[in-house]
Design a protein that fits this description.
With 191 residues, the protein is α+β, with helices and mostly antiparallel strands. The protein contains five helices and seven strands; from the N terminus they run βααββββαβαβα.
Length: 191
Amino acid sequence: MSPAPFEAHLDQKKARSQAIFGGVGAIGSLIFLFNARKTAWAMDQGFEAMVPAIIGLGIFFLFAGLMFRAVKTLRSPNQDAVLRMNESGVFDTRITSKVIPWSAINNAEIVNLRDTTRTRVQHNEDRNVQPVHAVSVSVKNASDYLKGEGALGATSKALSEATGYEGIILNPAELNTTAQAILDAILAHRN
């Protein structure tokens, strides 16, 4: 008997928090922008007056982008599963262009994403920081399954092809599931 299909959807609670955080950050950056510009004009500065304005504008676009992305998520609640596993294989709409068949998956394990670039000193200083767990899946010819859309996707796919790296990270961030649940579903379907 095959295991039940596994689906993970975007977490609405996290999206609401991101929308609020993005909105507050965008308003705060606009206040910074206008205060910095007003102060610079009062002091009769030239080009130097533009630097704080440009920084404030950049921060505004960062927070506004976060807010609009979260609002878009909230407007299309749980219509489609983001991460799916069934008898065909694994499909994550965020990073894969097609279903990864079970025959291509060699191994899967939980990894801590915070420990990937830490030095010993940084690791000792960050002992109180919670780990960020994801599932690393070893896939034969992983670059064949990665999306190549956008600059980041194309770069990721090109690096995977060039280095022969055969790992794909299934990150439960923004999803209504955990890394352990993803790993358990992979192991259940592979056996």
